[in-house]
C-alpha cells in the first residue's frame, strides 16, 4: 500500500490537509520530509474518505505544498525509554539538547498513554513532607496526588515548585524523589532557574527535563506534557521510583490547544477554548497516582498562571475540576513580602484527609488545620470590616481574631525559601497561634487534644 | 446483517456507508477489533456512529457490522458490588485479564458466566404469570435478596420452574405464551439503556430518604423517589456530599455513577465502602452498592452512556420493590460528552455549544426517578431517587446544564465556595437552597420524629434569614450597635450554622446523625435561645449570655456517639438551665452595682 504522498492540499497554521490518500488511520503518526531532508512530525486528526487532516507536532515553517513528502507510519507517536533518560535534557519534542548522545531505548511507549483502570488504582494516602507549613499543615500533599499551583504572572511559583522538588520526602523512606520536568513556553531564565537549582542540590542526576521555551514552536507544547508523563510512568511503574512531575506553564499548553482548535474551525467553547478541553486536560492530569502492587508513584504539580488572576478563567477552572485540589498564590500577600504567598482560603488538598492523622502525621492534625482555617477565615473577615468601620466598632473577640490573622500570615505561612520545617514544627507553630484564642473558641479540636497540645503557659 | 465500511473517522465519531439495515441507536461493531459503537444519526446511506472506545487506528475501508440490537445492559445476580465502565464492562475482570490499563477492544461479560446462584422459586408450575411477576429469588449478598422477575413483555403459563444452582445463562423457568410461544427465563435479562423500564403507576412522594446529613434532613430534605441536584464550583463539596448520601442514605440499593470525574474518587469508594458498615444492619455498605465508573480520561462516548447504564440498573432494582438511590457525579460531564459528539456531528449548536436537545435529555433522565407501583405480582411499591451533581463552569449557575436541571428537580442544594473556603462543610448555602418536599414530608417528620420537628425547622430557617439581614447592618455600623435581642439572635444563628449545620464527613461520629439525634440537637440550641431571651428580658447583659461556658458543650454535642447521646443530652440541657439560673440569681446584685 502506498504510504507516501506529495499531495498536500493545504497548510493552515498547525493543520495540514493531504488528499488522495488511501489507508490513512485516525491518530496515526505521520512524518513530513522537507525538501532539504529535514523531518517534521504530526498526527492524523481526522480522515474523511481520501482526505487526511493532520495536526503538526512541530512548526510548519519550511513546509511546502509541492515538495514536502508525507509518510503515514501506521503507528502512534512513541517515546523511547530507558533509565538513561535520567539526568538528560530534551526539547519539547523529545530531542536531546544537552549535547549528550541519543537515548538507546529499552522499549518504546505510546505517548498518549491509556486510561488507568479505576479498579487498579491504589488510593493515595501517604504523607509527603514538603517542609512548607502552608502545604504540610493546611493542604497536605500525598504521594500520587495531582496538586497544581494557580499563580499569576510575576508570582514566585517557580521558587515554590523548586523548594518542593528540593525538600519533598516520604517520612521513613530514604529514597528521594525523581523529578520529571516539563516546560511549555517559559522563558530561558525560568528554565535555567530550575536546571541550576536541581544541579546545585545534586538532583539533576535523578531528573529528566523536557523544555519548550517561549520562542520554541507553540505547537510542540501539545506533545511536551505527554512525553513527560510517558517518561514518568516508565520510571514510576516499571522502575519503582517516586516521581514528582512539574509541568509549567499549563496556560501555554491550553493556548496551543486553542490554536489547533481554531485552525480546524471548531465551534469554540468558553473564551475560545475548545469544548473538549476538560477531557483533554484530564488525559494529562489523570496520569498521576499509584497502582496496586507497584512501588512507584507519580505526584503531579502543574503550574499555571491565571490570565488576569481570574480563577473562573477556563484554564484554572477546568484544571481545578480535575486535579485533587489547588494551591492559589495571592498577589496581596506577595506584595506584603510574604513568601510563600499562599492565598490560604481557596487552597485545598482533597487528599489530605487520608494522608494525615496518627501514624502519618499526628492525631491532632485534622483538628488543628480545621481550627486554623476557621480562625483565619474569621480574622480575614474582621480585617475587612475593620478597614471600613475602624477597629473601634469591633467586638473584643473580633479584635483577637484580627490579630490572629496577621500573626498567622507572619509566622505560619511565611517562611524561608530554604527553610525545611518538619511537620511537628509546623503543628507546634499552629498550636502557638491557637493559644491566642480563648479556649471556648476552639470548637473544632477535640478536648483531649487541647489538653495534650495547647501550650501550658496559656492554659491557666 | 450487512457489513458497512468506514468512510470517515473524527475522534469518537465514525461515519460508515453500506449499513443498509441499521436502525437508530443500534449497536454496531467497528473495525477489526470490533469496538462497540452506537448509531446516532442515519442520513441516506451514511450512518454516524459514536464509538465507546478510542478510535485510533481506524480508517476508511474498515468494516462496520450491525448487531440489530440497541445498547443494552445485563440485569441479574452479580450486579451488586461490581464496578463497571459506562457500557457495563466489568472493570475488575478487565484488570484481571489485561492489567492496570484499559486496552481497546477488551471484552468481558457484565455478569459472570460461571458463578452459580442458588435460585429459590416462589411461583409454581401452572401459575399464570405476566410481566414483572416475581417468580423466585436469589440471595445475592447478605443485604440484598435479588428477586427474579418475568421480563417486561412476557406473559403466559409457567410450564416449568426449577430450584437449584444456576448460572445467569441457564434456564430456570419456561413460560408458554398466549400464541403458544415458548419463553425460556434465565436469572438474567437484558434491557436497552435509553428506554425507561415500565412500571404500573407513579405515586406522590411522602417518605423521607434519610441521609444522616443534618442540613439535608432538617432544612432541605429529599423524599424517596425524589430528585435533587447539587451544583457548585470545584472544591465546594459535590463529590463528598454524594459519597455521604451513598454511604448513609437509608435506601436498599445504591447506584453510584462516576461520570467523567476523577479516577481516585472511584477508587476511594471501592476501598472505603467494603470497610464501612450499614448503620441498620452492620453489614459492609458495598453489599448494596453498584458502581459505574467512566472517569474523565476514559472514552467520552461511553461517558455519555454511563448515566443511562446506571439508571437502567437502578430501575431494575426498583422493579423488585426496593428503594433505590442513584447518584450521578457529574451530570455536567455527561452533558459535555453530548456536546462533544454533537460538535463532531456538526449539528447546529444551541446555548454554549450544547445541542438543542440538552434540556429534553436531562428531563428524560430525571423523569426516570419516582415512587411507583411496580409491574406484576405481588403488588409492591418502590422508589428511585436521583441525585445529580452539576459542575458549572466558573461556578456560574446561569449556564445551560444548571438551568435545565433546576427546571426539573425538586431539591436544590446550592454549594457555595465562600463557605467551602472557610471550611464550613457541607457548603450548602442555606439562603439559596430549597426543597419542594418539605411540606409533603411534614406529616412524616411529625409522626416519625416528633410534632415539634417542623416548627423547629421553621424557626431555624427564620433565624438564619434574620442573621443575613442583621449582618448587613453589622457591616455598616458594627456589631456593638445592635440591640441585645438582635445580638442574641446573631449568636444563636451562629450556633445553628457552626454547631448544627456544619458536619464533618471525616469524623467517625459526626459523619452520620440519626433523625432522633438531629431533633435533640435542635432542642438544645432552642433551649439556649429561649432561656437567653428570658434572661435578656430580666435585664441580663448580653455579653454574659454569650460567654456562658455551656455553649461549648452545645457546640460539641455533635461529637457524642449515638449510643451515649440521650444521657449526655440530658446533662447538657440541665447545664443550660443551671447556667441561666446562676446568671439570673447573680443578676440582682450585679444590676444594682452597674446602676451606681
Ligand atoms: N447491545 C449491546 N449493548 C451493550 N453492550 C453490547 C451490546 N452488544 C455487544 N456489547 C458489548 O460487546 C461485548 C461482546 O458482545 P458479543 O455480542 O458477544 O460480540 P461478538 O458477537 O463479537 O462476540 C459484550 O460483552 C458487551 O460489552
Ligand atoms: N462534609 C464535609 N466534611 C468535611 N470536608 C468536606 C466535606 N465536604 C467537602 N469537604 C472538603 O472539601 C473538599 C472538596 O470536596 P469535593 O466533594 O471533592 O468537591 P467537588 O466535588 O465539589 O469538587 C474535600 O476534599 C474535603 O476536603
Ligand atoms: Mg462473542
Ligand atoms: Mg467532585
List keywords for this structure.
heterodimer, A: 460 residues, alpha/beta, 8-stranded mixed beta sheet, 7-stranded antiparallel beta sheet, 13 helices, 21 strands, 21% strand, B: 596 residues, alpha+beta, 10-stranded mixed beta sheet, 6-stranded antiparallel barrel, 26 strands, globular, binds adenosine-5'-diphosphate, binds magnesium ion
Give a quick rundown of the structure.
Chain A has 460 residues and is α/β, with parallel strands linked by helices. Chain A is built from 13 helices and 21 strands.
Please write out the topology:
The complex is a heterodimer of chains A (460) and B (596).
Chain A: E1 4-5, E2 8-12, E3 15-18, E4 29-33, E5 39-48, E6 51-56, E7 69-72, E8 78-81, E9 89-91, E10 107-110, E11 121-122, E12 128-129, H1 133-138, E13 149-151, H2 157-167, E14 169-170, E15 178-186, H3 188-200, E16 207-213, H4 224-238, E17 242-248, H5 250-263, H6 277-285, E18 290-291, E19 297-305, H7 314-322, E20 325-328, H8 331-335, E21 348-349, H9 352-355, H10 365-389, H11 396-413, H12 423-434, H13 447-453
Parallel strand pairs in A: 9-16, 13-19, 13-20, 15-16, 15-17, 17-19
Antiparallel strand pairs in A: 1-7, 2-3, 3-6, 4-5, 4-7, 5-6, 8-10, 11-18, 12-14, 20-21
Chain B: E1 3-10, E2 13-17, E3 26-30, E4 35-43, E5 46-51, E6 63-70, E7 72-75, E8 83-84, H1 91-98, E9 117-121, E10 128-129, E11 134-139, E12 145-149, E13 156-161, E14 164-166, E15 171-176, E16 182-186, E17 189-192, E18 201-203, H2 214-219, E19 227-231, H3 238-248, E20 253-259, H4 263-272, E21 289-294, H5 300-319, E22 323-329, H6 331-344, H7 358-367, E23 370-373, E24 381-390, H8 400-406, E25 411-412, H9 417-421, E26 434-435, H10 438-448, H11 453-477, H12 484-501, H13 515-537, H14 542-546, H15 550-555, H16 562-595
Parallel strand pairs in B: 8-21, 19-24, 19-25, 20-21, 20-22, 22-24
Antiparallel strand pairs in B: 1-2, 1-6, 2-5, 3-4, 3-6, 4-5, 7-17, 9-11, 9-14, 10-13, 11-12, 13-15, 15-16, 18-23, 23-24, 25-26
Helix pairs in contact in B: 5-6, 7-8, 11-12, 12-13, 13-16
The structure holds adenosine-5'-diphosphate (2 copies) and magnesium ion (2 copies).
Amino acid at each position: 500500500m502506498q504510504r507516501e504522498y506529495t499531495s498536500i492540499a493545504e497548510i493552515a497554521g498547525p493543520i495540514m490537509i493531504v488528499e488522495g490518500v488511501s489507508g490513512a488511520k485516525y491518530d496515526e503518526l505521520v512524518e513530513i520530509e522537507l525538501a532539504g531532508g529535514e523531518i517534521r512530525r504530526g498526527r492524523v486528526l481526522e480522515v474523511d474518505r481520501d482526505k487526511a487532516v493532520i495536526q503538526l507536532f512541530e512548526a510548519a515553517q519550511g513546509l511546502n505544498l509541492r515538495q514536502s513528502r508525507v509518510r503515514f507510519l501506521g503507528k502512534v507517536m512513541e517515546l523511547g525509554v530507558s533509565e538513561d533518560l535520567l539526568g538528560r535534557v530534551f526539547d519539547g519534542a523529545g530531542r536531546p539538547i544537552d549535547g549528550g548522545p541519543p537515548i538507546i531505548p529499552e522499549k518504546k511507549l505510546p505517548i498518549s498513554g491509556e486510561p488507568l483502570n479505576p479498579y487498579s488504582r491504589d488510593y493515595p494516602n501517604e504523607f509527603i513532607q514538603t517542609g512548607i507549613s502552608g502545604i504540610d499543615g493546611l493542604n497536605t500533599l500525598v504521594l500520587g496526588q495531582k496538586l497544581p499551583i494557580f499563580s499569576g504572572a510575576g508570582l514566585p511559583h517557580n521558587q515554590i515548585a523548586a523548594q518542593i522538588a528540593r525538600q519533598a520526602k516520604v517520612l521513613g523512606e530514604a529514597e528521594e524523589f525523581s523529578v520529571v520536568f516539563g516546560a511549555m513556553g517559559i522563558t530561558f531564565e525560568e528554565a535555567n532557574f530550575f536546571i541550576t537549582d536541581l544541579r546545585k542540590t545534586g538532583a539533576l542526576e535523578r531528573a529528566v527535563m523536557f523544555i519548550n521555551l517561549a520562542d520554541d514552536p507553540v505547537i510542540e507544547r501539545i506533545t511536551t506534557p505527554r512525553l513527560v508523563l510517558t517518561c514518568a510512568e516508565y520510571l514510576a511503574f516499571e522502575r519503582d521510583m517516586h516521581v514528582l512531575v512539574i509541568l509549567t506553564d499549563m496556560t501555554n499548553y491550553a493556548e496551543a490547544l486553542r490554536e489547533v482548535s481554531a485552525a480546524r474551525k471548531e465551534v469554540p467553547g468558553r473564551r475560545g477554548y475548545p469544548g473538549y478541553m476538560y477531557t483533554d486536560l484530564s488525559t494529562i492530569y489523570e496520569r498521576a497516582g499509584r497502582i496496586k502492587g507497584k512501588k512507584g508513584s507519580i505526584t503531579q504539580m502543574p503550574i499555571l498562571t491565571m490570565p488576569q488572576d481570574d480563577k473562573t478563567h477556563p484554564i484554572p477552572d477546568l484544571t481545578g475540576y480535575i486535579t485533587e485540589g489547588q494551591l492559589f498564590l495571592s498577589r496581596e500577600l506577595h506584595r506584603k513580602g510574604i513568601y510563600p504567598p499562599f492565598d490560604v482560603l481557596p487552597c485545598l488538598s482533597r487528599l489530605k484527609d487520608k494522608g494525615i492523622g496518627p501514624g502519618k502525621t499526628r492525631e491532632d492534625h485534622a483538628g488543628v488545620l480545621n481550627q486554623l482555617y476557621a480562625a483565619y477565615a474569621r480574622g480575614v473577615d474582621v480585617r475587612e470590616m475593620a478597614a471600613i468601620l475602624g477597629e473601634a466598632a469591633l467586638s473584643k473577640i473580633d479584635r483577637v481574631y484580627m490579630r490572629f490573622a496577621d500573626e498567622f500570615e507572619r509566622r505560619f505561612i511565611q517562611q524561608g525559601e530554604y527553610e525545611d520545617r518538619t511537620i511537628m514544627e509546623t503543628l507546634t507553630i499552629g498550636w502557638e497561634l491557637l493559644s491566642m484564642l480563648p479556649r471556648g473558641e476552639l470548637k473544632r479540636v477535640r478536648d483531649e487534644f487541647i489538653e495534650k497540645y495547647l501550650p501550658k503557659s496559656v492554659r491557666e | 446483517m450487512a457489513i458497512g465500511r468506514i468512510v470517515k473517522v473524527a475522534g469518537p465519531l465514525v461515519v460508515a456507508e453500506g449499513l443498509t439495515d441499521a436502525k437508530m441507536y443500534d449497536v454496531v461493531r467497528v473495525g477489526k477489533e470490533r469496538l462497540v459503537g452506537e448509531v446516532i444519526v442515519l442520513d441516506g446511506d451514511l450512518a454516524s456512529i459514536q464509538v465507546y472506545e478510542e478510535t485510533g487506528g481506524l480508517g476508511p475501508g474498515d468494516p462496520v457490522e450491525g448487531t440489530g440490537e440497541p445498547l443494552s445492559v445485563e440485569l441479574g445476580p452479580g450486579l451488586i458490588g461490581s464496578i463497571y465502565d459506562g457500557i457495563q464492562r466489568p472493570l475488575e475482570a478487565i484488570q484481571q485479564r489485561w492489567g492496570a490499563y484499559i486496552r481497546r477492544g477488551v471484552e468481558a461479560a457484565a455478569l459472570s458466566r460461571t458463578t452459580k446462584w442458588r435460585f429459590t422459586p416462589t411461583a409454581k408450575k401452572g401459575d399464570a404469570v405476566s410481566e414483572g411477576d416475581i417468580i423466585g429469588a436469589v440471595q445475592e449478598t447478605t443485604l440484598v435478596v435479588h428477586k427474579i422477575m418475568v421480563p417486561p413483555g412476557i406473559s403466559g403459563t409457567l410450564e416449568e420452574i426449577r430450584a437449584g444452582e444456576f448460572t445467569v445463562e441457564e434456564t430456570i423457568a419456561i413460560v408458554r405464551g398466549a400464541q403458544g410461544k415458548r419463553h425460556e427465563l434465565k436469572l438474567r435479562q437484558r434491557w436497552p439503556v435509553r428506554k425507561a423500564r415500565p412500571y404500573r403507576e407513579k405515586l406522590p412522594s411522602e417518605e423521607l430518604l434519610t441521609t444522616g446529613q443534618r442540613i439535608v434532613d432538617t432544612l432541605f430534605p429529599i423524599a424517596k423517589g425524589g430528585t435533587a441536584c447539587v451544583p457548585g464550583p470545584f472544591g465546594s463539596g459535590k463529590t463528598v456530599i454524594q459519597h455521604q448520601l451513598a454511604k448513609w442514605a437509608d435506601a436498599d440499593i445504591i447506584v453510584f455513577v462516576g461520570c467523567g470525574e476523577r479516577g481516585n474518587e472511584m477508587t476511594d469508594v471501592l476501598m472505603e465502602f467494603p470497610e464501612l458498615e450499614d448503620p441498620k444492619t452492620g453489614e459492609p455498605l458495598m453489599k448494596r452498592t453498584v458502581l459505574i465508573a467512566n472517569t474523565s480520561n476514559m472514552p467520552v462516548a461511553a461517558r455519555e452512556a454511563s448515566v443511562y447504564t446506571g439508571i437502567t440498573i437502578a430501575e431494575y432494582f426498583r422493579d423488585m420493590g426496593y428503594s433505590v438511590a442513584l447518584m450521578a457525579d457529574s451530570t455536567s460531564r455527561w452533558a459535555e460528552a453530548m456536546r462533544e459528539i454533537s460538535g463532531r456531528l456538526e449539528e447546529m449548536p444551541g446555548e454554549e455549544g450544547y445541542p438543542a436537545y440538552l434540556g429534553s435529555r436531562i428531563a428524560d433522565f430525571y423523569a426516570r426517578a419516582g415512587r411507583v407501583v411496580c409491574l406484576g405480582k405481588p403488588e409492591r411499591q418502590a422508589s428511585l431517587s436521583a441525585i445529580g451533581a452539576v459542575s458549572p463552569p466558573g461556578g456560574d449557575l446561569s449556564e445551560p446544564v444548571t438551568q435545565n436541571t433546576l427546571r426539573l428537580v425538586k431539591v436544590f442544594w446550592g454549594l457555595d465556595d465562600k463557605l467551602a473556603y472557610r471550611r464550613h462543610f457541607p457548603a450548602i448555602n442555606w439562603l439559596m437552597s430549597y426543597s419542594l418536599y418539605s411540606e409533603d414530608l411534614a406529616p412524616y417528620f411529625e409522626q416519625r420524629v416528633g410534632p415539634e420537628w417542623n416548627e423547629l425547622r421553621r424557626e431555624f430557617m427564620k433565624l438564619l434569614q434574620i442573621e443575613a439581614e442583621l449582618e448587613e447592618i453589622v457591616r455598616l455600623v458594627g456589631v456593638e450597635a445592635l440591640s441585645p435581642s438582635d445580638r442574641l439572635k446573631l449568636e444563636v444563628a451562629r450556633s445553628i450554622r457552626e454547631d448544627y449545620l456544619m458536619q464533618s464527613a471525616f469524623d467517625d461520629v459526626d459523619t452520620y446523625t440519626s433523625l432522633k439525634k438531629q431533633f435533640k440537637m435542635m432542642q438544645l440550641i432552642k433551649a439556649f435561645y429561649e432561656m437567653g431571651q428570658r434572661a435578656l428580658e430580666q435585664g441580663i447583659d448580653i455579653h454574659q449570655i454569650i460567654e456562658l461556658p455551656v455553649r461549648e458543650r452545645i457546640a460539641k454535642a455533635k461529637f457524642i456517639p449515638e449510643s451515649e447521646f440521650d444521657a449526655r443530652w440530658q446533662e447538657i440541657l440541665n447545664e443550660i438551665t443551671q447556667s441561666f439560673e446562676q446568671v439570673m440569681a447573680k443578676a440582682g446584685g450585679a444590676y444594682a452595682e452597674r446602676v451606681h
